[in-house]
Design brief:
The structure is a single chain. By secondary structure, the protein is an alpha+beta fold. The chain has a single domain (2-75), classed as 2-Layer Sandwich (TATA-Binding Protein). 28% of the residues lie in helices and 39% in strands. The chain is globular, with a radius of gyration of 13 Å.
Length: 97
């Protein structure tokens, strides 16, 4: 699943905000979640999220006019995709504000 959040703050500012607030990403997933992050490059952060007894992987890619969240959901969690998508959209906007 890929969710793009448009922004008008520029790539550098978007990257700064994501770096500073990356600890809030666990709140994107309904229920208790553990998150580990690793910046693969200046503009891409890989994620591993543990929630509901499952592990999800994903990434955040920072662009000049959007930040793209990509999440690979295990088949066992496919039923919560709409809920996770709406949380990422809402909280992703807040993360960039």
């Amino acid at each position: 699943m890929r969710i793009a959040i448009p922004h008008s703050i520029g790539k550098d500012e978007a990257r700064r905000r994501i770096r500073e607030r990356s600890g809030e990403i666990a709140n994107f997933v309904p229920g208790f979640a553990s998150v580990s992050t690793n910046w693969q490059s200046e503009d891409k952060m890989d994620l591993t999220v543990g929630a509901m007894g499952q592990e999800m992987t994903g990434a955040i890619e920072v662009g000049e006019s959007e930040v793209a969240f990509t999440v690979e959901l295990p088949a066992a969690l496919s039923f919560v995709e709409p809920m996770i998508r709406s949380q990422i959209e809402a909280k992703g906007r807040k993360l960039l504000s």
